[in-house]
Automatic annotation (TrEMBL):
Cellular location(s): Cell membrane; Membrane
Main localization of the protein described in the UniProt heading: membrane
Organism per entry: Alkalicoccobacillus porphyridii
Record-given protein name: Probable membrane transporter protein
Family indicated by similarity: Belongs to the 4-toluene sulfonate uptake permease (TSUP) (TC 2.A.102) family.
Keyword Membrane: yes
Length: 273
């Protein structure tokens, strides 16, 4: 029964992570910590082990989702490569910081972090993308409703920003999508579907680097990973398929509501220990 529940956690994490470009860590990390001691096979799960194991799982979610989104031709690979330049060193720094965090503080910080991100989605209509300079990266695409989007950014700023996203990625084991997607939509003007698909490609890179760093530090539980991987793989495919069938506005609505609910749960758990 315990193994089956972990498979289901992996499936839910992979589906929601792929659907919203978050990678699934926002499900895997709190699930491992909250179920610690509740399930017989989950014992003494530290924030470090939760984050390390989560990032390993997201490699498989990332591969599965990237394949699916590549077939849909919604990934901006050039932007993904630019963001990855900052993500990689940031992910390594995040592992180092992660070692000094205890469980209750971790849950509370994680909850507040997600609440801030969710808030940005509620005010996104009042925010305008950053103005582009002549040498900035710029692209025009059509979304699935036929609406034209022109988005872009300054590559140097994007690399610096993604460095800090990489730190958050490894620190919390979330893959960076929880910040990368809002930044792409709100700051750079990405259409939601392109932001989600590109985020999953970036998450694949950051999760790979972050998980290697966590492995070296002994933060990965391979038994937990074995149970979570199958669900995460199929969830990645399922999330991409669902993403293809819903509008951008509905996708953003689901994303912000989901983040608020999870944030409140984590903060409550962290405060009450």
């Amino acid at each position: 029964m315990s193994w089956l529940l972990l498979v289901i956690v992996g499936l839910v994490a992979g589906t929601l992570g792929s659907l919203m470009g978050l990678g699934g860590g926002i499900i895997v990390v709190p699930s491992l910590l909250l179920l610690d001691g509740v399930l017989p096979i989950l014992q003494n799960v530290t924030p470090q082990v939760a984050a390390g194991t989560s990032l390993l799982i997201m490699i498989f979610t990332g591969i599965s989702s990237t394949i699916a989104y590549a077939k849909q031709k919604t990934i901006d690979f050039k932007s993904g490569a630019i963001f990855s330049i900052g993500i990689v060193p940031g992910a390594i720094c995040g592992v180092v910081i992660n070692r000094a965090v205890n469980t209750d503080d971790f849950l509370m910080y994680f909850g507040f972090f997600m609440l801030v991100v969710a808030f940005t989605f509620f005010i996104r209509k009042y925010l305008k993308p950053m103005p582009l300079r002549p040498k900035g990266y710029k692209r025009t695409v059509l979304d699935r409703e036929g609406n034209e989007f022109t988005y872009g950014y300054q590559p140097v700023f994007a690399v610096v920003l993604s460095f800090f996203v990489g730190i958050i990625s490894s620190l919390f084991g979330v893959g960076g999508g929880a910040l990368m997607v809002p930044f792409m939509i709100i700051l750079f003007g990405f259409p939601a579907h392109v932001a989600v698909a590109t985020s999953m490609f970036v998450i694949l890179v950051s999760a790979f680097i972050g998980s290697i760093s966590h492995m070296a530090a002994g933060h990965v539980n391979w038994l937990y990973a074995l149970a979570l991987v199958p669900g995460a793989w199929f969830g990645g495919q399922l999330g991409a398929a669902i993403n293809r069938r819903i509008s951008s506005d509905r996708l953003i609505f689901i994303l912000r509501i989901f983040m608020v609910l999870i944030a409140i749960r984590l903060i409550f758990q962290g405060i009450n220990g």
